[in-house]
Amino acid sequence: TLKLFCFQVQRTQPPPEEEEEAEEEETEELGHVDTYAEYKPSKSTIGISHPDIVVETNTLSSVPPPDITYVLSLPETTIKGGLLSALQLEAIIYGCQQHEVILQNKQRAGFLIGDGAGVGKGRTVAGIILENYLKGRKKALWFSISNDLKFDAERDLKDIDAPHIPVLALNKIKYGDTATSEGVLFATYSALIGESQAGGQHRTRIKQILDWCKPDFDGVIIFDECHKAKNATSTKMGKAVLDLQNQLPRARVVYASATGASEPKNMIYMSRLGIWGEGTPFRTFDDFLHAIEKRGVGAMEIVAMDMKVSGMYIARQLSFSGVSFRIEEIGLDNDFKLVYNKAAKLWAEALQVFMRAADELGLVSRKSLWGQFWSSHQRFFKYLCIAAKVRCLVELAQKELEAGKCIVVGLQSTGESRTREVLDENDGHLDRFVSAAEGVFQSLVTKHFPSEKQRREKAPGNKRKRKWAETVAIIVIVSLLLSTARIEEMKQDLLHKISILGKELPLNTLDELIDKFGGPDKVSEMTGRRGRVVRRPDGSVRYESRAEQGLTIDHINLKEKDRFMSGEKLVAIISEAASSGISLQADKRVKNQRRRVHMTLELPWSADRAIQQFGRTHRSNQVTAPEYIFLISELAGERRFASIVAKRLESLGALTHGDRRATESRDLSKYNFENKYGTKALDKITKSIMGHIENKVPPPKGYPGGCAMFFRDMKLGMMDVGILCKDPRFGISTEKDCSITKFLNRILGLEVHKQNYLFQYFTDNFDYLIEKDKKEGKYDMGILDLAPGNDEIYEEKQEIFLTAGNPQDGQVVLYKISVDRGMPWEEAYSRSLKLSGSDEGFYLSLKLRGNHPCVLLAEQGRGKNFIVYKPNIGKQSQTESLDKLQQPAFVCLKQSSFYCAYTNTSILPRLNGKCKKIEEGQECLQGMRLRQYHMLCGALLRVWKRVADVVSDITSSSILQIIPAVTVDMCWKS
């Protein structure tokens, strides 16, 4: 079936004179479209089916890819033998086909593989390299995020029967040497900015790469996990990625990332897609970014569809059918709360001590000081949050192991830096487990407490007369002598209090986990750290390197992965360093085929990073799908963020859950605080807590001491964590540049009950603002369905317009369609025969609507609410209470055979027998069974700016709503 996409332009608020009539109109709501659809190649016919179910977003599935013109050179054994699945072969064909296109800026067009974790991007990329190798292009560049992934690249080439293509590691080649061999040059993104300190012919890696490629290089450049280069204009690495593409205009560029096109700002390095620049609707990337961000969620979907239609993009992901999710809520015991609250109070005291010391010294620039203070503050409380869940995790894991499963524990941080600091302090000896939290606090005070050195460094230069300079110098020396003792005393007092608190603080989480699971012999650790603290058989503790005899630290993670996959070890712990590229699923090809139980001890703040980590255990060719357990403490923020990830995963599995309308998971927009609603909510709560405004949202109920005490405590608490600060000129004010991220990090420094109540107040305001915008028609609802119920859509007419550009995809079509919202009498009667409740059935409203009585069918819903069906709008979006149906205005028609089937005429009250809108020369649509819409479809990106300008002129909303629709005629024709 062919699906259309439209922008629905409607007035968000009726004019004042229409308000009375608008109240009479039945509420109408667009439904949410199915989030995912099962994916099958539509135009490629070669290859065997993928071993697992793969899905595609519904919007992408509604548009076809271009016709195939490229002929593959891959050997028949690779295709028919199933070394590459039909899905992977399709991506290779479209990638190579796109590489035949030359953009208007004379550069070769690139291709974006947006396949999710587990679909097999590695093999697809290897297939593209092999295809070009067979066409005579013997050299290729492969960039990724870790040198360890070179072995994965070799494995992928071997898996598709191309072991003869060598993979050369750039980090093993000296700067002065030239890599003359053919094959794949494998490098990390950080290598692009590598520079030699020893001199020689090749002083930089990028020059070495360019010399290897030669200026006329037309081979493949793979940017794997390319989201790592997203800050292309603000980082040296990002600029190097752009520079390499500009230096090699004929190269065949492939971008590969599961999250690369999730946000428009992250696409800046994708210069070869030809969306912006010469000969496109957007002169620069900034023009493109501004246009897309201004128009909300639907805009990015239009971009994705346009890219797929043009043949430059493909994005599938593994279905989460069979995957189970559960959240384990972990209550904090009283002892832990006591320690946490002590720590929060000591940090609040430390803030005051740091400020007094800085004032005493008269520090002019304090940016570096506070940068160190707050980063340490964030790490300290992060370690505490994780430590609160260790005991429960081990208990749960033991039960799962006894049930015949194996465990994968996901966390982000390892605490290695503190361990190495203690090791250095003790001349390389360590006989105890280290508290990472205590170390962070101690290190901050020891290294960054305000000092005379900082003041001297910040003192003004000697630009005045010598006599004045000498006077200032004398004053400074006297001041130093007077303040040194006081500052040193403050510092030592703070260190003493930290050492006392340190005796109660939890130990380093990673070391403690490994110890509780039975030591390194039982646990496969896949992290970035080089050493760890372990317990020996005699009970003593020592520090040891993770490197093994004959293996470098670069190879140890791969060795540990093999031990887990072979079943030698049944517990694996992975950090962010091992969250990209590594495969830990219950693969049919490995010995350990136990079901994976993936337990998240520490969730990353980024949902995309979380999905990357979950993709380690849910991949193609697995015997069983994994089980995800989210461990959530009662500390503020953690629970809400876990729900984000859970909802995202559930939306991927919606195809098998029966609920195909995953309404709240679209782009995580409802639960993502880093948007305009989060900023407004933060502004509202800070102003109301400071007493500057009266907030319509009341504070949470149940706070000890009531509302007055809540506002007083929150004001003091937000000062303790630096969200509010005292300014000598303006009194108490919000810290400059206080973002949502900063707010969520800082409130962890409040006592447990305070941070939970403050976070609740914030989320209450956040939800209120969203609901307010929804009521006013200003909220971007994501992708909505034009006909959410049994509605039928009919095409009335179409106009075709041609746009500048490729004739194949340069067509825009304006459709006029009508939607039949009504419910026929036959369907209503049939439904009524199945009703059994005493209050269910037909009702007649004695209140006339125009000249017609209003008849409805009521069906029992939840509780005392009833689902209502009306002849002119079908199923009503809002339920009605039994009390309302039993009012004198309604009469229950028990055995009625009467049902009013309205024709397509307005049923609203009329003025002097006429509709107000018709009198004003407008088309009347309110109350109509048939609703008419105009839909703009096709290559919308090419006319984006003109459409946006027109819409801005006729509506107060900046949202362009994207809506899929299938007409009755189209379904019949197909």
TrEMBL record:
Alphabetical UniProt keywords: Activator, Differentiation, Osteogenesis, Repressor, Transcription, Transcription regulation
Residues in Strawberry notch AAA domain copies: 50-342
Region (Disordered): 11-30
Domain Strawberry notch helicase C: 508-785
GO molecular function: chromatin DNA binding; histone binding
InterPro entries per the UniProt record, alphabetical: P-loop_NTPase, SBNO_a/b_dom, SBNO_Helicase_C_dom, SNO, SNO_AAA
SBNO alpha/beta domain segment(s): 823-929
Family to which the UniProt record says this protein belongs: Belongs to the SBNO family.
Biological role: Acts as a transcriptional coregulator, that can have both coactivator and corepressor functions. Inhibits the DCSTAMP-repressive activity of TAL1, hence enhancing the access of the transcription factor MITF to the DC-STAMP promoter in osteoclast. Plays a role in bone homeostasis; required as a positive regulator in TNFSF11//RANKL-mediated osteoclast fusion via a DCSTAMP-dependent pathway. May also be required in the regulation of osteoblast differentiation. Involved in the transcriptional corepression of NF-kappaB in macrophages. Plays a role as a regulator in the pro-inflammatory cascade.
Subunit structure: Interacts with TAL1; this interaction inhibits TAL1 occupancy of the DCSTAMP promoter, leading to the activation of the DCSTAMP promoter by the transcription factor MITF.
Identification of the protein by name: Protein strawberry notch homolog 2
